[in-house]
Specification:
The protein is of the alpha+beta class. 25% of the residues lie in helices and 21% in strands. The protein is built from eleven helices and 16 strands. The strands form five sheets. The chain has a five-stranded mixed β-sheet with strand order 7-13-14-15-11. A hairpin with a 6-residue loop joins strand 14 and strand 15.
Length: 378
């Protein structure tokens, strides 16, 4: 089966198909008379991604009374979840299984290398385990216990000196006119007649960042320095404030007044194009890129983790420190995953980059919690 560059988001895959492909009709997006390539010829390009996963093992990942499906996922599901930007909107998802069967077909294997099983369950390998260049733990300890505002450790200075180049690979531009959302629990009451009031949302001027005098410490901002926390959709914005059933939530719509260059941490390991890493000798492959981006990976993880009221405020110093470095490089904010919903969060360093255009009142009808036992069983 043939695929074309229109099927993918990756510029690397697009360029490869444009160079190595031949004119034909794409089986996955329907385009005709366009440069196409046989899906199986993309296997070597997908192999570094596939190599980040392994099949689950009995006695290691699950045991006798466990349901393996609680501990592993199908390989295509894992890859598409973790590297969500592989396929474009033009790709026909009804032919997704056909694509994967063609990609990992029998042609790539011999008696010493059995074929990959698309029906088996897989888990992600810990690429960063025992990684000597992973400075997150050391940086965190240093900022919490030794120095807060100036780095004197030469190894940390060396690591942080490469940060501008790493950030350049995670740049993302939010276009002017984009809509973002912010939620606040609560509402106001407005008198409609002499003895009757109506519940209404907060005013637009009340939906922005708090003033410095009451700005509390957050994942990205230190106390007294307010940032504006937004989301890419209403559901994510509402979920992030964790309301209870029956609660009223005011949701403000904010429109960007200019294009905003942010650091996008929503991609896996802050890598937008996993196919862009050459791996001819194993030195500069995808695993290398993941290790190089380990600081941003940990920053994304920490920003995504919901704030724990019992957690010491000093625990947020490392994320606030890296956020300040990003801000100092001239970026307008950070985009990162939400732990509460499917959308993305965006923290802006200045409220002047957006304007609140409207506020709507929502009431929480229901809340659903998924949970598991501490031993991993349901």
């Amino acid at each position: 089966m043939l695929c074309c560059g229109n099927c993918f988001e990756s510029q690397t895959l697009k360029k490869h198909i444009a160079t190595a492909g031949e004119t034909g009709n794409c089986d996955f997006c329907g385009r005709r008379k366009i440069k196409c390539i046989d899906v199986s010829e993309l296997y070597e390009l997908f192999l570094p991604i596939i190599g980040l996963y392994r099949e689950i093992e009995y006695g290691v990942d699950y045991f006798e009374d466990d349901d393996p499906f609680d501990f592993g996922d199908l390989l295509p599901d894992l890859v598409e979840r973790d590297w969500y930007s592989i396929f474009s909107d033009g790709f026909d998802n009804d032919k997704r299984d056909d694509f994967w069967r063609e990609l990992v077909g029998q042609d790539h294997y011999d008696k010493d290398n059995p074929p990959l099983s698309l029906s088996s369950l897989w888990v992600e390998r810990d690429v960063l385990q025992n990684h000597p260049y992973d400075m997150w733990s050391r940086l965190s300890y240093y900022l919490k216990t030794e120095r807060r505002f100036f780095i004197a450790d030469e190894s940390l200075i060396g690591t942080l000196s490469s940060l501008p180049d790493i950030l350049a690979g995670a740049r993302h531009t939010i276009p002017v006119g984009d809509l973002l959302y912010r939620a606040r629990i609560g509402s106001a009451m407005r008198k409609v007649v002499k003895y009757r009031e109506k519940r209404v949302p907060f005013k637009r001027k009340e939906m922005g960042a708090p003033p410095p005098s009451i700005a509390s410490s957050g994942r990205a901002n230190p106390s007294g320095i307010p940032f504006l926390y937004l989301a890419t959709d209403v559901t994510t914005a509402v979920s992030e404030v964790r309301p209870w059933k029956g609660a009223y939530v005011s949701v403000g719509a904010f429109r960007t007044t200019q294009s905003i260059e942010v650091i996008d941490l929503s991609a896996k390991y802050a890598i937008d194009d996993p196919f862009a890493y050459e791996d001819s000798d194993g030195t500069f492959g995808l695993a290398y890129g993941i290790k190089e981006n380990s600081l941003l990976h940990h920053l994304a993880t920490e920003l995504t983790t919901p704030i724990d009221p019992d957690r010491s405020l000093i625990d947020y110093v490392p994320t606030q420190f890296l956020t300040e470095l990003i801000r100092n490089e001239g970026y307008g904010g950070i985009k990162y995953p939400s732990a509460m919903a499917e959308g993305r969060n965006i923290v802006l360093f200045s409220e002047s980059l957006v304007s609140c255009t409207s506020v709507r009142l929502h009431q929480i009808d229901s809340i659903r919690y998924n949970h598991s036992r501490e031993d991993g069983r349901q």
